[in-house]
Amino acid sequence: MDTIHKLQEPPDFSLVIGGPVYHLLVRSRLATPALELVHRRIVFITLFAWLPLLLLSLVNGKAWGVVGLPFLYDIETHTRFLVALPLLIAAELLVHKRMRLIVGNFIERGIITEAVLPKFNDVIASALKLRNSVTIEVSLFILVFVAGHYIWSTVSGIEEIGMGAGTWYATVADGGTHIFPAGYWYIFISRPLFQFILLRWYFRIFIWARFLWQTSRLELNLIPTHPDRAAGLGFLSGICDAFVPLLLAQGTMVTGLIANLIFFTGAKLIDFQLEILGTLGFVLLLVLGPLMIFSPALMRARRTGLREYGILASRYVNEFDHKWVRGGATDNEPLVGSGDIQSLADLGTSFQVIRDIDPFPFGKKTVVQLIFLTILPGLPLVLTMIPLEELILKFLGSIF
Is position 340 within any domain? Predict the structure, then answer.
């Protein structure tokens, strides 16, 4: 009885609950042990990153006018800290809730059997140990707060975007770079904070991919005739919904960067085809890449299913042919009402299900949805190429 209960109980798996930063948030009452108070975290962290930039820019006279790129006109900064950053914070609770259910499906669907359960628990324990690593989070902290401003150059785009007149955070004068007060907060506080949260998300996805890779190497009980056409692994595509805020954040970041270049340097949206395609490829790999790990297991299940059900089908059709075509049936056995024909049809349906197994536990619909969500924040930039009135007229013309 205890074993059955243990198999049915969802495992305590979370990419988010754990690590030094999590415990710091709990102690500071910005989060509960169950990761609640998400609105409080969004407000506090967002204002901590963005509000000082506004106040210091106002005090220094760089909020509007004077420089080539005033603070209030900096679309990239506002989209990063007022849109992308809250999305990255909100994604934590969504991924936490969804991930535990997704991982629990391995057990609930019988993919992880009682014999394999101890090894599966070891895989979970290994993932949680990596998630709780103090060394990793400290390394990320050092990377962004100490060396980040060398990796991401301070003067990046000052002359280009500022049109020679500088930006709200720094300007180039006398062959050197002069950083304004708001610039110091931006360079050493706001931007590293955002980078840390973003890199921590990349690290979490690495843990997720590693967990799936180790799970795929176990003796999984995959059923090739499962109606999800993924041998029972179709539930994995459900995790894509949890990563939607992360995709929107990525799209928002790129949109803000492109918008600045369009409005302040005269660039055209069409000039950024490679950047847009690169972003799409990156986010698809980020979300769908870990799921592709199961491709070899799915193809093995397909081959095994085709072989085993092929043998079963051959036996059945031989007996069916002998009984109903070659005269093997008794004279008093009616053909009408016999379940043999229906069983033959059911066997054919099962065989077709096996042949339809996809190499990945997600479909084209999932890919299209992820692409749309990633480019959604950038759709308003289309208006820089086609006036709104013309766009509306073309839309109405296509209908009427």
Answer: no
C-alpha distances in Å from residue 46, one per residue of 38, 41, 63, 84, 86: 12, 8, 18, 10, 7
Instruction: Please give the pLDDT value at position 150.
Output: 61
Cα 125 to Cα 110: distance, rounded to the nearest angstrom: 20
Q: Residue 268 falls within a domain, yes or no?
A: yes
**Domain count of the fold of the chain:** 1
**Quick one: how far is CA 21 from the chain centroid?**
21
Per-residue b or e along 363-375, where b marks 16 or more CB atoms closer than 10 Å to that residue's CB:
eeebeebbeebbb
Nearest to 143 by CA among 202, 209, 89: 202
Domain hosting residue 267, numbered range: 2-300+360-399
Cβ atoms < 10 Å from Cβ of 131:
22
The rounded distance, in Å, linking the Cα atoms of 138 and 23 is 14
Task: Provide the token pair at 123.
Answer: 């895989």
Q: What percentage of the chain exceeds 90 in pLDDT?
A: 52
Describe the crossing of helices 273-288 and 364-375 by its angle, rounded to 10 degrees.
Answer: 130
Separation CA 315–CA 333 (nearest Å)? 21
Q: What digits encode the pLDDT tens for the residues 311-343?
A: 887 887 777 777 666 666 656 665 655 556 677
Provide the β-strand partners of residue 172.
Answer: 177
- Residue type present at position 361: P
CA distance 307 to 45: 57
Residue 287 belongs to a domain:
yes
- E strands, the chain, where? 170-173, 176-179
Residue 80 lies in a domain: yes
Name 179's bridge partners.
170
Give 293-335 as a 3 state SS string. HHHHHHHHHHHHHHHHHHHHHHHHHHHHHHHHHCCCCCCCCCC
